[in-house]
């Protein structure tokens, strides 16, 4: 019988880079292994603006959650592909506006879950839960999320940088549809992902895929927009990450336009 610690060690695969840990390195974090920082440096050598892209995505998360908890009045969040905790995590952003907000984080990287359980603590009025599951198993995610969230009431589903982890053969649009179909009217989808519109980024991702434990799939802006099918997009629609409701007092970094995002509501 495999010891639980041995199982976790095997899942960590510290001999190969993992996307959450590489992303952590690009954001300036320390929760990564040498193999992850090496992969991050390879990406930066080919596409030096990638760290700025990572920061832009985190800022989109902040703006989207503030919109969802504030203007949209959502009090439940299902964050799939959580990544390693940094500043301004989903529950912190939501609970600053509405302390009673309830958040379920989902990831399949054991290092992410260990850190999440240690660092992501809820307000006393709200709740945080952590699910060890893969986005390819939406039924399990929904079943586990229902232990913390009331799925008869609106939920904001956030999927930032996660659909690129799914190949076309795994039918990413169907995964989004399955998740949103289980949520009631008034629920939202916030999604962002990398585009295939920049040759340097295409090359960097190709190099990364050649050595990583999980591959990333860049797609056209039109394909990413199709993940919102059947939902009503919030203005300004599907746009570059920096262009979604930018804050006037905090101009975004001037970097290559290599990711798109959007927020949409289920009517």
TrEMBL record:
Pfam families: Methyltransf_19. GO terms for molecular function: methyltransferase activity. Keywords: Methyltransferase, Transferase. InterPro entries: SAM-dependent_MTases_sf, SAM_dep_MeTrfase_SAV2177_type. GO terms for biological process: methylation. This is SAM-dependent methyltransferase.
């Amino acid at each position: 019988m495999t010891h639980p610690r041995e199982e976790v060690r095997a899942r960590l695969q510290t001999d190969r880079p993992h996307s959450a840990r590489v992303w952590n390195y690009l954001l300036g974090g320390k929760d990564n292994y040498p193999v992850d920082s090496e992969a991050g440096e390879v990406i930066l050598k080919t596409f030096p603006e990638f760290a700025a892209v990572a920061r832009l995505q985190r800022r989109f998360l902040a703006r989207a959650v503030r919109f969802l908890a504030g203007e949209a009045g959502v009090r439940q969040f299902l964050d799939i592909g959580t990544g390693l905790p940094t500043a301004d995590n989903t529950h912190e952003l939501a609970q600053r506006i509405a302390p009673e907000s309830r958040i379920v984080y989902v990831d399949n990287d054991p290092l992410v879950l260990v850190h999440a359980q240690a660092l992501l603590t809820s307000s006393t009025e709200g709740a945080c839960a952590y699910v060890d599951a893969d986005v390819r198993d939406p039924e399990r995610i929904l079943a586990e999320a229902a232990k913390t969230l009331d799925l008869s009431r609106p939920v904001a589903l956030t999927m930032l940088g996660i659909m690129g982890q799914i190949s076309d053969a795994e039918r990413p649009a169907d995964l989004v549809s399955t998740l949103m179909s289980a949520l009631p009217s008034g629920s939202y989808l916030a999604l962002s992902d990398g585009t295939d519109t920049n040759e340097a980024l295409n090359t960097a991702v190709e190099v990364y895929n050649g050595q990583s434990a999980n591959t990333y799939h860049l797609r056209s802006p039109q394909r990413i927009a199709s993940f919102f099918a059947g939902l009503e997009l919030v203005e300004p629609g599907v746009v570059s990450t920096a262009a979604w409701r930018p804050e006037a007092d905090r101009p975004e970094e001037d970097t290559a336009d290599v990711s798109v995002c959007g927020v949409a509501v289920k009517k």
